[in-house]
Structures are given as C-alpha cells and as structure tokens.
Amino acid sequence: MVCTRSRAASVALDASPERRQSQAEARKHGASKRKLFDCCTDCPASVSGTPEVAKLGTERCASLDSAPPTPKTVDRERPQSESPAVPAPALHPALEPVMQLAMKGWCSNLVALQPKVQVSDATLLGAVALMREFAVQRPDVVGLLHTSGPHLFTYTCAAMWMASKTGDIRTAIPNRTLMSQACQIHPQALSDFELDLCVSLNWEVTKVLRAADLLQ
C-alpha cells in the first residue's frame, strides 16, 4: 500500500505542468549539446595548431620572404680562351612581352602606392634593352631567365628601376621600398640583383640606353 501511494504521488508530481516544462527544456538542451559535439567531431578543434598546417604556413612565409639566389658575377679579369668565339645566346623574344606586361602592372601598383611616381614608356623599353645586353654579357644566366620566373622578374624589376633612375624625372623616381612593394620583391633581393646587373654590364648603363636611342 505504501509503495502504491508513493508511486501514485510520483506520477502526480511528474504530471504537473512545471515538471513537464523543465523536462522538455532539459531534453532540448541535451539535444543541442549533442548536435554541437557531433559537429565538433567532424571539424578539428584547433586546425591552425596541427603540425601539417604549421609547416605549410612556415613554407609559405619562407617563400614570400626569401629571394632567388643571385648568380655569381663574371670574373672580367680572367684571360680569354684561345677557342673560336661562340655567339652568345640572346634573350628569347617571347620573354619580352611577358616582361612588358609585368612592368606595366608594376607601374600601376606604383601609382596606386604613390601618385607622384612617374615611370615613362622609355623606361620600360630601357629595361628591356638592359636585359638584352645582360643576356649577351652573361650567357651563364640566360638559362635561368628562360626557366626561372623569380629570376626573370627580379632581374626585370631591377632593370626597370635602373632605367628609371637614369632617364626619368628625379623627383618622380620610386625608391627601393616602393619598388619592392609594387613588384612584390624582397628589398635586399632588388639591391643584390641591381648590383649584379651593373657589374655584368661593366657599369655602362647609360651607354646601353644611348645605343638603344633612349637617352640623349
């Protein structure tokens, strides 16, 4: 009899509206919590902390910050060989439109960064002329220019900067920081490749530009 009364009282308590409402809320909360946990099992809690993603991020940072190595400059003091002269391989004509397109994009970036910067069309032609002469003087680098995009564009950017400093208005010439930002090339790489160009051309930049009728 006592058990029957306690069971009846329990049933009556469970049947009360307040009890039913609290039970419904508890079931709803439990279901949403299970749904959240089920979603979390499909998605890692901390993706950025995994070794694979950390390695990928490190490699990407390294690729953005690093620069292609500068090839060694030619030793101009070494004696000439007795073998007959072999024509030096020239810069492939198919590369020139690629270089022109890249330089036009860099000019747009320069103006966006600093509206006072002015790079003339003669400067772009001068950069191509410098690259042609560079290919003649440095046959050991021609293969890199034809096969390595980073080398081609870093040398082209350096040639464009050299031509600008030689022929453009002095107050409108971009500095190294602007050139680096516009061309997305490391500043030190820009300086190193510019030096390699100057040494390879025997510092006769103005002579090359005058020969191309780009300087008075």
Helix-strand makeup class: mainly alpha
Q: Radius of gyration, Cα only, in angstroms?
A: 34 Å
Roughly how many Å apart are the termini? 120 Å
Uncertain spans, ≥5 residues at pLDDT below 50?
1-15, 29-66, 73-84
Give the number of helices: 10
* Quantity of strands, as a count: 0
Share in helix: 55-70%
What is the arithmetic mean of pLDDT? 73
**Global morphology:** globular
Largest sheet, in brief, is: none
Order of helices and strands: HHHHHHHHHH
Proportion of strand residues: under 5%
Tell me what the structure shows.
By secondary structure, the protein is mostly helical. It contains ten helices and no strands. Helix 4 crosses helix 8, helix 5 crosses helix 7 and helix 7 crosses helix 9.
Write the SSE topology.
Blueprint: H1 2-14, H2 17-42, H3 51-65, H4 95-113, H5 121-137, H6 139-147, H7 149-167, H8 176-183, H9 187-200, H10 205-211
Keywords summarizing the entry:
216 residues; mainly alpha; 10 helices; disordered N terminus
In short:
The protein is mostly helical and 216 residues long. Helices cover 68% and strands 0% of the residues.
